[in-house]
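User: Sequence in, structure out. Go.
Assistant: Echoing your sequence, followed by the structure tokens.
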Amino acid sequence: MSLEQPSPVDPHDAEPTRERVIVRRAPKVWGFLALGTLLGVAAALILTFAFRPADGGPTVTEDGTAFGLTQVFGFLLVCLVPIGAGVGALAAIVLDRILARKAVEVDVDRIDVAADPGFSGGADATDDMPSDATPNEDFPRR
């Protein structure tokens, strides 16, 4: 089995081929998970102070067990943070399904250009290009 490298082709000499691709938007799932988690923390905080005893003391159960405010907050965090993250993930999935229906097919020109075998592609290859620049006539890729 030989690993034959294709010869480099100048992008101006390459023949473009027409292809159809699907372009669609997708939600950032981590953002939805973070928002759901924050909502779970907020709900735990609200419920901790909403149901505390009127005298401000610890919460006492029917069998006489007493729980302080931080314990109640911790219990609610353990329950509500995963629920909030799950609701956030579910919202991301629903939004992804809605946005998938709005996907469009577009025609693109594809140009296959083999990389130069002598080109390292390391960090020193783009030293003259600013980090936020996109390759164009002013800053072409080497």
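User: And one key feature?
Assistant: The mean pLDDT is 79.
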